[in-house]
Amino acid sequence: MSRKTLTAAFPYTLPVLMGYASIGIVFGWMMAAIGYAPGWAAAMSVLIYAGSGQYLAVDLLANATPLADVVFLTLIINFRHLVYGLSMLEKFRGMGWRKLYMIFSLTDETYALLAGVQPPEGVDEKGFYFSIAVLDHLYWIGGSVVGAVAGSLITINTEGIDFAMTALFIVIAVEQWRSGRQHLPALLGSGVTLACLLWLGPDNGRFLIPALVLMVAFLLILRPSLEHREEAGEA
After folding, report:
1. Count of domains observed in the chain
2. Cα–Cα distance, 167 to 164 (Å, whole number)
3. Are residues 57 and 127 both part of a single domain?
4. Residue 108 counted as domain residue
5. Residues 108 and 38 both lie in one domain
6. What is the mean pLDDT of the chain?
């Protein structure tokens, strides 16, 4: 990873910096609020690096949730990353040892960037993608550490503060809607999720995996039509 690729990638990651600085601080603060030292928040952000999963972990740790429940809930929360990875196979091809890190670091925000940006002319493509992933990870670690340290020094009521993660997802969804020409996948995802929620109920998020499976199935069936419309430039 050269300075040239880092310099080229940095402007594209500024929106992620703003988001990760804020929600990372919130995560670190929440960890401090349940009695964990800053080192734990830093370690989780380095080794786990799953924003919504880490937010969930705060409640699981606070309530001493059984390990089996932790595994199941983590699978539900992060199941979407299996779909992310499938769509990135071509971009990650030929990245050598960096491919393993790219798979590990494929968060929602990093995925959104990698799916929508192209490296500037004269910049190594694989190095550009790798730089984006590393910068985003560093932003998350930095925010977590700042929040954990601040939370260990300042005591406040953290009730409701975890909505920061939900707000970030809403912003990402709105931006994807505004920038994308194809709205059918978003409408399909929303409709399938709502149908599964009404059918199975919200208990323990059991509707999420069926919803994701159905979404993948429908998108695979509709893929030829969607690709044709994309080539034709239709909305």
Report:
1. 2
2. 5
3. yes
4. yes
5. yes
6. 83
Buried b or exposed e, range 156-166, using 16+ CB within 10 angstroms: eeeeebbebbe
- Smallest CA-to-CA distance from 29 within 115, 148, 176, 146 is with 148
Q: What is the pLDDT of residue 169?
A: 67
13: which 2 tokens? 């990651």
Rounded CA-CA distance 65/60 in Å is: 5
Reported confidence tier of residue 129, pLDDT bands at 50, 70, 90:
very high
pLDDT confidence of residue 120: 87
- The DSSP secondary-structure symbol of 204 reads G
Q: What is the pLDDT of residues 47-66, one digit of tens each?
A: 989 878 888 888 888 888 88
Query: Tokens 């406040």 belong to which residue?
Result: 156
pLDDT of 40 > 70? The answer is yes
- Going by the DSSP 8-state scheme, the letter that residue 124 receives in this structure is -
Sign of the alpha-carbon dihedral angle for 71, 74, 75, 76: positive
Place of tokens 């804020």: 22
Which of 207, 215, 170 has its CA nearest to residue 188? 215
Q: 137 pLDDT exceeds 90?
A: yes
Residues 124 and 198 in one domain: no
- Is residue 128 over pLDDT 80? yes
Tokens 């954990």 appear where?
Answer: 148
79 and 193 belong to one structural domain: no
Residue 103 identity (one-letter amino acid): I
List the one residue out of 138, 86, 89 whose CA is nearest residue 109: 138
